[in-house]
Design a protein that fits this description.
Chain lengths: 130, 113, 250
Amino acid sequence: MSRRPLVRECPPTTWYFRQPRYLRYMSREITSVFVGAYCVLLVVGLQRLSAGPAAWEAFLLGLRSADSIVFHLLALAAAVYHATTWFNATQKAMPIQIGEDFVPGNVISGAHYVAWAVLSVVILYLAGVF
Amino acid sequence: MAKSHKPVVWFPFAAGGTVIAFFIPVIVVLTFLAALGHIPAGLSYERMHALAGNGLGKLIIFGVVALSLWSSAHRLRCTCYDFGVRADTLVATVLYVVAIVGSLLSAMYLLQI
Amino acid sequence: MTQMKERLVQLEVLRYNPDTDTEAHFQRYEVTCYEEGVVLDALNKIKADIDPTLNFRWSCHMAVCGSCGMMINGEPKLSCHTFLREYEGVIRVEPLAHFPIERDLVTAPDDFMEKLKRVKPYIIPKEKKPISEGEYKQTPTQLMKFRQYSMCINCMLCYAACPEYGLDPQFIGPAALTMAHRYNQDSRDAGREERQEVVATHEGVWTCTFVGACSEVCPAHVDPASALQQMKITSSIDWIVEHLIPGGKK
């Protein structure tokens, strides 16, 4: 009896519907679209800033539209989702062993969350939000 | 099998992923406030010009923008593959070129300030 | 003695006979099992009472041997470790995804076996010493550094969970690369440079996009995703030393 194994192909364009965790992974990856688009907005902002006060004021006023608000909400959701997945992954990428024991993973991720919160508050404060 | 040169693109991706996680959400909040009509005092021309006017400020702004752009471009490249686009070399070239051009433009604008 | 409760279990099992079939197809079975049973018990009952032609692998029935891995309702699982009471309705049982089907629920593990060999999953000492000089000693701290990664039972659930392996079968994959990490982390080992020839290639860690599914399905809590992330970082540092630092090796 000879072997005749049946090879099944992984569907290259639809595989992520197979398991919910694949959809979670794809959502994480798709955050790059919104974050990337937001970075392009930042480059435009730098251009306006370099063009002088009038151009900068116009840039800020230009942000005030419904489309811009929707875009900001999407970018914010994407950036925050990226941040949580990234900080959750730090414990896997950088485990810390002290003696025989490893520092619990949620301590490593938790430290990143604390640093993130502090940094965000400091930046908001420096920007005069409160 | 030769060792891969992937670290060239992956290292800045990893650095950029960290930068995005720490900085981009709060920066989005600032421009979101502007979009809502409550422009934070820190976004005034004088304050922004002062920030981008000194060497350290230029360096920080450039680092955040360039690394975030690169990280997004690299992740988008992988995402295209995951969606079944097999023209990886083309996708990678286009996205990396966009990221590099964006970074060069940022550097140019910052030097003009 | 207390009476053990029984329940009627419906299973939809993927069948493939290499001698007669060109496609795989589902076959429905109904069987009465103990309430506390596992999917493997149901399969054994089917084989004993209903259909002796049904093929599947198993051995220990206690989540140690790693031979009874299957897709159960689309999720890679050890069938000896998957309780019937956790399911309602028809339970769909398929062979492990991403591996060729040998017959029914039996898959061909050849690809994984070949890849496992390629990462040299054994201690390569700096200098071999004769037995008369005694054992290679290790402190508990040194042991703990890699112990988690040594718990792999080669069940291949991580390969069935990894979409990147499914999309690119050249990928060395989670378990084999994790084994490389396990030996790299071992204080008695000096073989990292040899393993890097496989680990640091495109087919090695660089095909991984950190989906993380491998670690979620691992029945031995090995966390291959963490091993691969760590190897990406160390491989990147290697690259910088080799290419950017004057006088760096190679």
